[in-house]
Write a structure and sequence with these properties.
heterodimer; A: about 325 residues; alpha+beta; Butyryl-CoA Dehydrogenase, subunit A, domain 3; 3 domains; five-stranded mixed β-sheet; two-stranded antiparallel sheet; 7 strands; about 10% strand; B: about 375 residues; Butyryl-CoA Dehydrogenase, subunit A, domain 2; four-stranded mixed β-sheet; four-stranded antiparallel β-sheet; 11 helices; 8 strands
Chain lengths: ~325, ~375
C-alpha cells in the first residue's frame, strides 16, 4: 500500500500549476468567456509548451498519472480548453473524445477539438463537428451546436479514460471552491466576528472538506485501478457518481458561505460554478450516472473487502 | 502508487475468515446480544491466542508479532465485519494493553499484559460522566487524597461499554480539584470487585451489556494503581486516543452487509430504487474505506496526524453505517423487525440498524467531528 505519486507526476503537476498561475488562474476563464480567441492566443501556447497535449496516458503509467494530476491543476482554474476531451481521447485517429448519452446536441470547445468523436453510452462512436460558431449560454459558455454522424471506420469505444480524467478535473475545481470558501469564512465578518466562527458555517465547511477528501481518495484510487489494468466500467462510474455528489455538496455549501457575492461573476465562485456545469451535465447528471452504475455492478461486480459478484449475463441485462 | 496491500495481508484475511467460519457460531451477532454470545467471544479469543493472532500487533517483547499497520488493519476489518468475535477483548488488546506498555510500571506490565494478551481479562473504559460527554476534559470524578498516600474515589461514570462483564476499569479521575480542564487528571487501573464499586446496566437499544453506569463510593486506590504520572493523566488519555486513530473500522461491516444484500437487490431492474440506493451506498463504502486508509497511510509516513484527518473519515464511516442500516431495513421490509434466524440476513438487518443508531454519537459525535475539522481548516494556509 503506497499512496505516493511518482516524482515525475508531482513535478509535472507543479509545472502545470505554475503555468495556470501565469495565465491568471480563474481570471483566464473569465477573460476567455468575453474574448473566445484568447483560448488559442494565450492558453494553447502554454499547454503546448508544457507538453500536456502530448502526454500518452494510454501507454505509459507515469504519463497517465501525470496527466491526471495536471488536469486537476487545470480544473482548479477551469482552464478554458478541452483538455479532458483531448488528453482522454483513446479512439485511434481522433483528436478529441466527448462522452455522450446519445448523439450530442451541443458540446464545449468543439472549435478547438480537431477531429472529434462522441462516444455514446452503448459504445457507438460518432464523428462530431460544430454546427455554427460558439453560442454561449451562462452554463455552457464555450458550447456550440453540433452535428453527429456514425464514424464508420471506428469500432466501439467506452470513453472510460475521459470519464476518469473528467473526475480529476471536477476534483480540481471543487478543491478551489473549498479553499476559497475556507478563506472567505475567515475574512468576512458579520455581527462583529468572522462568519467562520458560526457553527452553521463551520459545519458546511466540514462537510465540504469530507466531500473533497473523499473525492481525492476515490479519484486517486480509480486512477491506480486504471494504470494497473484493473479499472472496470463500475469503477469509473462509481467515481463519476461520487464526483457529482461531491459537486452538489461543495457548490451548494460554497454558495451559502459566499452568499450574494458568490453569485457575481466578479467572484471566482460564480465562474467556477458556471464553467464546471458542462462537465457535470455531460454526458448526463447524477440520476443517470447512478443508473449506469447499477447496471455496471451487475456486469462487472465491484471490488471491495467483500466484493459484489457479477451476475449471470441473463440476469445482468435488464 | 499502489493500493494493493500485498500477499501477506491477503493471506492473513483468508486465515482469519477460515477461523471465523470454523469457530464462530452462525447465530453470533456481537457480544451485546446475550450471555451465550459472550461465551462465544471467550472461546474465539482462545482460538486466536493459540494461533498467535490475538496480539498480532503487539511487540514481540509482550508476545506479539510486531505486525505492520496494514496487517493490523486487516485484523480489525475482518473482526468488525464479522460482528467483532473478540467481543470485549478488542478494547484491552487495541489500547489498554498498549497504553500500559507505554505508561505502566514494570509491576503493572507484568501483572496486566499477560492476562490481556491471552484474552483472560475484560476491561472497560471509565471516561464519560453525566456532565462530561463530548467535553471529556470537564470530568469531575474525585480522587480525594488520603493520609496513607492513596486516594478515595467518589463519583459516577456513564455509558461504559462492557462494565457489567469487566474485571478492570481504565479510569480517569480528578486528583487535583484546584486544577481545571486537562490539568489535575490521573488515570487509575481499578479492579471492579473493589469495595465501593457498583455497576448498573442501562437498558438500551444496542443490547444487553452495552451501556452501564459505574458508581464509586469511597473506593480506595493507591499509588500502585496509578498509570503514568499523578495529575498528568491527560497525557495517558491522549495516548489512548492516538491508538484509536480510525476508531472502529465501521465501513468493514457495512461492506459485508452490502455484499449480503446484493443478491436481494440484484434481482431488481437497475432503475429500481433499492438497486440505485445499493449502488450509491457501495460507492460511499469504498470512499469511507479509502479515507480510513488515507489516515493510516499519513500516520505511517509522517508519524503525526493533523487532527482533522481522523475526523473526516469518522464522519464518512459513521454516516455510511446508518445509510447501510436504512438500506438493509428497506430491503428487509417488515421482516426487518424480526431478529430470528431465518429472517432476511438472519436478523442482521435489525441488529445493524439498532447498533448504527449509536454510530454518530459514540466516540465523539458527528457535530464534534465537524468542529474539529473546521478548527483545523481555519489553520490552513491562505
Amino acid at each position: 500500500m503506497n499512496r505516493t505519486l511518482p516524482p515525475e507526476a508531482i513535478a509535472f503537476a507543479q509545472a502545470t500549476r505554475s503555468a495556470m498561475s501565469r495565465l491568471g488562474g480563474v481570471e483566464m476563464a473569465r477573460r476567455a468567456e468575453q474574448a473566445l480567441e484568447l483560448r488559442r492566443l494565450e492558453v494553447e501556447p502554454v499547454l503546448r509548451e508544457l507538453g500536456l497535449l502530448d502526454l500518452a496516458p494510454l501507454t505509459d503509467e507515469v504519463e497517465a498519472i501525470a496527466a491526471a494530476m495536471a488536469i486537476r491543476e487545470a480544473g482548479a482554474v477551469v482552464c478554458p480548453w478541452p483538455l479532458v476531451a483531448v488528453v482522454g481521447c483513446d479512439v485511434p485517429g481522433a483528436d478529441a473524445l466527448y462522452v455522450s448519452a446519445g448523439a450530442p446536441a451541443r458540446l464545449e470547445h468543439l472549435d478547438l477539438a480537431g477531429d472529434a468523436v462522441a462516444v455514446t453510452a452503448h459504445g457507438a462512436v460518432l464523428s462530431v463537428t460544430a454546427d455554427g460558431p460558439i453560442a454561449p449560454t451562462p452554463l455552457d459558455p464555450f458550447g456550440s451546436r453540433c452535428l453527429a454522424v456514425p464514424r464508420e471506420e471506428t469500432g466501439v469505444a467506452d470513453g472510460h479514460l475521459a470519464l476518469l480524467l473528467g473526475a480529476q478535473w471536477i476534483f480540481g475545481a471543487l478543491s478551489t471552491v473549498t479553499t476559497l470558501s475556507i478563506a472567505y469564512s475567515r475574512e468576512r465578518r458579520q455581527f462583529g466576528r468572522p462568519i467562520g466562527d458560526f457553527g452553521a458555517v463551520r459545519w458546511r465547511l466540514a462537510d465540504m472538506a469530507v466531500a473533497r477528501a473523499g473525492l481525492e481518495e476515490l479519484a486517486t484510487f480509480t486512477l491506480w485501478r486504471y494504470v494497473s489494468g484493473l479499472m472496470t466500467a463500475a469503477d469509473v462510474l462509481a467515481l463519476r457518481v461520487y464526483a457529482l455528489e461531491a459537486a452538489e455538496a461543495i457548490l451548494t455549501h460554497g454558495h451559502q458561505v459566499f452568499a450574494a457575492i458568490g453569485l457575481c461573476d466578479e467572484h471566482d465562485m460564480s465562474i467556477i460554478d458556471r464553467h464546471l456545469q458542462p462537465v457535470l451535465r455531460r454526458p448526463a447528471g447524477l440520476a443517470a450516472a447512478e443508473q449506469a452504475l447499477a447496471a455496471a455492478l451487475a456486469s462487472d461486480g465491484f471490488d471491495a473487502l467483500f466484493p459484489l459478484e457479477p451476475l449471470p449475463r441473463a440476469v445482468a441485462v435488464e | 502508487m499502489d493500493f494493493d496491500q500485498g500477499e501477506r495481508v491477503m493471506r492473513l484475511r483468508e486465515r482469519l475468515r477460515l477461523l471465523i467460519d470454523q469457530h464462530v457460531p452462525g447465530w453470533y451477532r456481537g457480544p451485546f446480544k446475550d450471555d451465550a454470545s459472550v461465551r462465544a467471544t471467550e472461546r474465539f479469543c482462545r482460538v486466536l491466542a493459540d494461533e498467535r493472532l490475538l496480539t498480532i500487533d503487539w511487540p514481540a517483547e509482550w508476545g506479539g508479532e510486531d505486525a505492520g499497520v496494514w496487517e493490523q488493519t486487516a485484523v480489525r476489518e475482518e473482526m468488525w465485519a464479522h460482528d467483532e468475535p473478540r467481543g470485549a477483548q478488542y478494547m484491552g488488546l487495541s489500547w489498554v494493553g498498549p497504553a500500559i506498555m507505554r505508561h505502566g510500571t514494570a509491576e503493572q506490565k507484568a501483572m496486566h499484559l499477560p492476562l490481556i494478551g491471552r484474552g483472560d481479562v475484560t476491561w472497560c473504559q471509565g471516561f464519560s460522566e453525566p456532565e462530561a460527554g463530548s467535553d471529556l476534559a470537564s470530568l469531575k470524578l474525585a480522587a480525594t487524597p488520603q493520609d496513607d498516600g492513596g486516594w478515595r474515589l467518589y463519583g459516577q461514570k456513564i455509558w461504559t461499554s462492557y462494565a457489567s462483564l469487566a474485571q478492570w476499569c481504565f479510569l480517569a479521575a480528578r486528583t487535583d480539584t484546584g486544577q481545571r480542564r486537562q490539568k489535575g487528571l490521573t488515570v487509575f487501573l481499578v479492579p471492579l470487585d473493589r469495595r465501593g464499586v457498583e455497576v448498573r446496566p442501562i437498558a438500551a437499544m444496542m443490547g444487553t451489556h452495552h451501556l452501564n453506569e459505574i458508581f464509586f463510593d469511597g473506593v480506595q486506590v493507591g499509588p500502585e494503581d496509578v498509570l503514568g504520572e499523578v495529575d498528568a493523566g491527560w497525557d495517558v488519555i491522549r495516548t489512548v486516543l492516538s491508538f484509536e486513530r480510525i476508531g472502529i473500522p465501521r465501513y468493514a461491516r457495512s461492506d459485508r452487509l452490502l455484499a449480503q444484500l446484493w443478491p436481494a437487490v440484484a434481482s431488481e431492474p437497475p432503475s429500481a430504487p433499492l438497486r440505485l440506493a445499493h449502488a450509491r451506498t457501495s460507492v460511499h463504502c469504498r470512499v469511507a474505506r479509502l479515507l480510513a486508509y488515507r489516515v493510516l497511510a499519513i500516520g505511517e509516513q509522517a508519524g503525526e496526524l493533523p487532527a482533522h484527518e481522523p475526523a473526516l473519515q469518522r464522519i464518512a464511516s459513521t454516516l455510511l453505517d446508518q445509510e447501510v442500516a436504512e438500506l438493509a431495513m428497506e430491503v428487509a421490509g417488515a421482516d426487518g423487525l424480526d431478529d430470528a434466524p431465518g429472517a432476511l440476513l438472519d436478523g442482521r438487518a435489525e441488529d445493524h440498524w439498532r447498533y448504527a443508531r449509536a454510530s454518530t454519537v459514540a466516540a465523539g459525535t458527528t457535530e464534534i467531528q465537524r468542529l474539529i475539522i473546521a478548527r483545523e481548516l481555519a489553520r490552513e494556509p491562505r
